[in-house]
Specification:
The chain has 116 residues and is an alpha/beta fold. It contains two helices and six strands.
Length: 116
């Protein structure tokens, strides 16, 4: 079993990293504090956005997938629709929105930016 931080601690750290770097970050929905899953929306403030979700890679490490390369977005309305459906499906989900003109996600985990 993988050891990982409680989700609330992880979310607080992500929000703080974004704020320290000058971006705005908001918790749209709080989920299970210990093991809740996370979806991270990054709004570029130009009508486009990206969305990142966690996954486990072939080595068993936690990574985040950029769902833009999976066909969701980059129009912000499409990303919002995905986040809304994810929130409706999973009440234990943490939904985070970061607003950053440069599109930075502030994730410290590896991010898969392209399809294999």
């Amino acid at each position: 079993m993988m050891d990982r931080l409680p989700t609330k601690v992880w979310v607080d750290a992500l929000v703080r990293r974004a704020q320290v770097a000058g971006a705005a970050a908001f918790v749209l929905q709080s989920g299970d504090e210990e093991r809740g899953d996370v979806v991270v929306k990054v709004a570029c403030l130009d009508g486009t956005a990206a969305v990142y979700t966690p996954s486990i890679n072939m080595e068993g490490d936690r990574v985040f997938l950029n769902l833009i390369v999976q066909g969701i977005g980059p129009e912000e309305a499409d990303v919002d629709a995905y986040v809304r459906k994810a929130r409706d499906r999973d009440r234990d989900l943490w939904a985070i929105e970061i607003e950053d003109r440069d599109g930075r996600h502030f994730l410290t985990e590896p991010v898969q930016e392209q399809l294999d």
